[in-house]
Amino acid sequence: MTSALEHYEKLLAPVYSWMAGGTESAITRGQDELAEIGLLNRGARYAVDLGAGFGMHSIPLARAGCRVLAVDSSAILLNELKAHANALAVTTVQDDLLDFPRHLAGRPDIVLCMGDTLTHLPELSSVTSLIATVAKHLSPVNHFVITFRDYSKALEGPNRFIPVKSDESRILTCYLEYDEATVQVHDILHEFNEGAWGMRVSAYRKVRLAPGWVKDQLEKCGFVVAVGVGLSGMTRMCATRA
């Protein structure tokens, strides 16, 4: 079993923008999502994007006038972000999400932890620690937005097999195995090169998060939480503090 970091470097990071439908298309969807939430016109000056990847949300925030601290564990994805950010005010940091405070240049007005990033943390206590840390460092403007997949109810039988994306030269499929606290994600990537199909397989664990539990953790830290549906059917929580 590989770690999330190893899994991404070995298999997912080089094809992640392809999975997302192309970088520019994904950035447009990220911009639309932030606009829907109302984060592009709140006058925020400083934002932190945890699990920033190739910049799906970091770049729209920077285009809206924010200085952005983009944190991710993948050097491959952060290099893609830097290439697309050009002269925008985006600072990239390769580090663990929980260590983001040591890279801060002030109190952020916005903290994002979007995509399925939250489930990459090793255990529930890491999730509660991250929420408490964000609450401690947010400015009075304070917007904390989380999206994640609801793995609390285990899929069964053929439903555990999920076609992720395919085209004429690449096919990505995953299947899921559940235990009490985590879901083991097996990614199977077929690629057509030099007239033949090759296959690469890697697996890692994600923590199973129930939306009600995450909402409770946010509220224990003083957040008021609005729950909705994000991109790709993910649970989305927009949290603010009085």
Can I get a quick summary?
The chain has helices spanning 4-12, 16-19, 23-37, 58-63, 75-85, 124-137, 211-220; strands at 46-50, 67-72, 90-94, 110-113, 143-148, 161-167, 170-178, 182-193, 196-207, 223-229, 235-241. The chain has 242 residues and is an alpha/beta fold.
Give a written overview of the molecule:
It is built from seven helices and eleven strands. The protein is of the alpha/beta class. The chain has two domains: 179 residues, Vaccinia Virus protein VP39 (Rossmann fold), CATH 3.40.50.150; 51 residues. It has a seven-stranded mixed beta sheet with strand order 3-2-1-4-5-11-10, with helices on both faces. A hairpin with a 2-residue loop joins strand 8 and strand 9. 37% of the residues are buried.
Main attributes of the structure:
242 residues, alpha/beta, globular, seven-stranded mixed sheet, four-stranded antiparallel sheet
